[in-house]
Write a structure and sequence with these properties.
The chain has eleven helices and four strands; from the N terminus they run H-H-H-H-E-E-H-H-H-H-E-E-H-H-H. The chain is mostly helical. The relative contact order is 0.19.
Length: about 250
């Protein structure tokens, strides 16, 4: 029996208005777990500073926003009325080409995330001034730069995978296959919903920073881990996030 059969007519009418969000693949979930865990490694494994954790988590949230923006497909071709697979040189699928692409994309993502991090890092700047901790010294340490580089490369690898799913290798001179792709409008709305969820996480992180600044080490050991789990949950189960904030995914 259709489980929607008992729903009222208004409820049925509202069902198509929600953009369906697929679950993340296992490999993407693993990548997200590693990326969100990196800010915790210096804090717990190497007795890092609370300020370092705040800065690294700020960068993690910023790189997530960069990834959302860069994995949103462009507008449809108005002459065709639908999206099509973009063709690329077959050499782009070579291993060396993929490695170089990830390195270059990682550098670009890091620059974009650094810019986005400036307003998000407000609590970290305040904490540094209150505790008289030298922020430049924290940012110059190896325990800070290695996670930053790793998070950038992980995000770039995820983007590379998404890029290859939108493109098809075609030899020079071969006819354009013009393979249609059902995307664009729903993907745009999905991206808006993901951005809204990301902003919710950023606001939650700022509240977390306030708690950590106020209570210091007494609230340190559990909260950063719980927040990392929350980040992984949002990335791994965006379909659940859709049900939590359904209005963010409704078509206008």
């Amino acid at each position: 029996m259709d489980r929607d059969a008992g729903a009222s007519q208004p409820d049925r009418d509202a069902l198509p208005d929600i953009v369906q969000i697929p679950r993340a693949s296992p490999m993407n979930i693993v990548a997200d777990v590693v990326r969100h865990a990196l800010p915790l490694v210096p804090l717990y494994a190497f007795n890092g500073s609370l300020l370092g954790y705040m800065l690294l988590t700020t960068f993690d949230l910023a790189i997530g926003q960069v990834l959302i923006f860069n994995t949103t497909p462009g507008p449809v071709d108005p002459t065709r009325g639908h999206g099509t697979m973009r063709t690329v040189d077959p050499r782009s699928r070579w291993l060396i080409s993929r490695i170089v692409s990830v390195i270059v994309e990682g550098a670009m993502f890091a620059i974009e995330a650094a810019v986005i991090s400036v307003p998000i890092a407000g609590p970290a700047w305040i904490f540094g001034m209150v505790t008289s901790v030298n922020i430049s010294e924290v940012m110059s340490q190896r325990g800070f730069w290695i996670p930053v580089v790793a998070m950038s490369l992980i995000a770039a690898a995820r983007f590379q995978g998404a890029f290859e799913s939108w493109t098809i290798p075609v030899r020079h001179g071969a006819p354009d296959p013009k393979i249609p792709v059902a995307r664009n409008e729903e993907d745009r709305k999905r991206s808006l919903g993901a951005s809204a969820a990301q902003l919710t996480l950023i606001a939650t992180f700022m509240a977390l920073c306030y708690v950590l600044i106020t209570f210091g080490r007494s609230g340190l050991y559990a909260l950063p881990i719980l927040f990392a789990v929350l980040l992984v949950f949002y990335d791994a189960r965006p379909d659940v996030a859709q049900r939590i904030f359904p209005a963010l995914w409704r078509k206008k």
